[in-house]
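A favour, since you know our structure tokens better than I do. It will help me judge whether the discrete encoding reads sensibly. The space below this message is yours for that.
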Amino acid sequence: MEKYIAIAKFTKTQGLKGELRAQTYCDDPHILEEFKQLYLGENKTPIKISLHGIRKGFVILWVEDIDNIVAAENLIGEFLYVLREDFQLPENTWFIADLIGLTVVDADNGEVYGKVEEILQTAPKDVYVIMTEDRRQLMFPSIPEVLIDTDIAAGIIKIRPLEGLFNE
């Protein structure tokens, strides 16, 4: 498991005073304000941010010492990270980064469907995207009827697909 967890990615500038739009990788964007320390980019440079707005699909952030559009443009594409140890997850919730790459198997017969490639955070529930061995994508919703068990330590997610879920 990674020491740092990506919590957001800067996607574009917002206005002329250095604010940035960011895509978040958390259920509640307000969580960004709760961390005493965030880290920027590959080098995990400590930074401070403030949340200036929440819009559908993105947040608007101000980064300390970034006060113009030119400086803000240099951050586009960079990720914001938190230290794993600074983040307490509720029971039966996981970091998306820890779910990517897990093997998805049938809870009843053990059939391997593939590996988690991506998790789409849609309303009302997340959708898991699986890449099969023959490079097809399968998707399933994270609802109790389908998602039976997640075992990070074993690297396995057990599902029980609803009838017709994976039919093409």
Q: What stands out?
A: The chain has two domains: 4-86, 96-159.
